[in-house]
């Protein structure tokens, strides 16, 4: 499985993270492609307010989520991932992240203010790291 993301989207996510005092979060929109549609092509990142306003956890604001999902559907895009930041720790999944993955079984991209990032997916009950390709 590959997670293909444009360089300008990565730069935008890093800037969002650098300028934040709480975890940033949102959706990665695009399309799935390749045999079995296992590869994800990220065409757009859309931030969603963190309703917890916490530097250690996130929960997406439901009204923002609905708006982004409605807009993306009208444009023919699908949610291929969720992103959030870890401000003071490495980009590895927390217990809270693992619980969230059960509700959103897409790729989870975690990014730090320094630009370190890793992606994960929950497949058949097991967490797998996903290869990130920069386009």
Task: Describe the model.
The chain is an alpha/beta fold. It has a single domain, classed as Cytidine Deaminase, domain 2 (3-Layer(aba) Sandwich). The protein has helices spanning 7-18, 62-74, 95-103; strands spanning 2-5, 25-33, 39-48, 78-85, 107-111, 117-123, 126-134. A 7-stranded mixed barrel has the order 1-3-2-4-5-6-7. It is globular.
Layout of helices and strands, plus pairs?
Blueprint: E1 2-5, H1 7-18, E2 25-33, E3 39-48, H2 62-74, E4 78-85, H3 95-103, E5 107-111, E6 117-123, E7 126-134
Parallel strand pairs: 1-3, 1-7, 4-5
Antiparallel strand pairs: 2-3, 2-4, 5-6, 6-7
Largest sheet: 7 strands, mixed, barrel
Distance between the termini: 15 Å
CATH architect. name: 3-Layer(aba) Sandwich
Strand order in the largest sheet: 1-3-2-4-5-6-7
- Low-pLDDT segments, ≥5 res: none
CATH superfamily: Cytidine Deaminase, domain 2
Portion of residues in beta strands equals 35-45%
Radius of gyration: 14 Å
| DSSP strand tally | 7
Task: Predict the CATH topology.
Answer: Cytidine Deaminase, domain 2
Order of helices and strands: EHEEHEHEEE
If helices are DSSP runs of H or I spanning 4 or more residues, what is the number of helices? 3
In short:
The protein is of the alpha/beta class and 135 residues long. 25% of the residues lie in helices and 39% in strands. The model has no long low-confidence stretch (mean pLDDT 94).
Keywords:
single chain, 135 residues, alpha/beta, Cytidine Deaminase, domain 2, 7-stranded mixed β-barrel, 3 helices
């Amino acid at each position: 499985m590959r997670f293909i993301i444009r360089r300008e989207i990565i730069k935008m996510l890093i800037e969002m993270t650098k300028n934040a005092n709480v975890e940033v979060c949102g959706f990665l929109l695009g399309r799935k492609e390749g045999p079995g549609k296992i590869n994800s092509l990220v065409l757009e990142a859309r931030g969603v307010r963190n309703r917890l306003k916490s530097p250690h956890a996130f929960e997406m604001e439901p009204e923002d989520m609905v708006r982004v999902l409605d807009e993306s559907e009208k444009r023919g895009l699908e949610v291929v991932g969720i992103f959030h930041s870890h401000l003071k720790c490495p980009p590895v999944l927390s217990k809270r992240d693992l619980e969230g993955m059960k509700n959103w079984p897409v790729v989870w991209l975690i990014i730090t203010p320094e630009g370190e990032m890793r992606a994960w997916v929950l497949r058949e009950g097991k967490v797998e790291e996903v290869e990130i390709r920069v386009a």
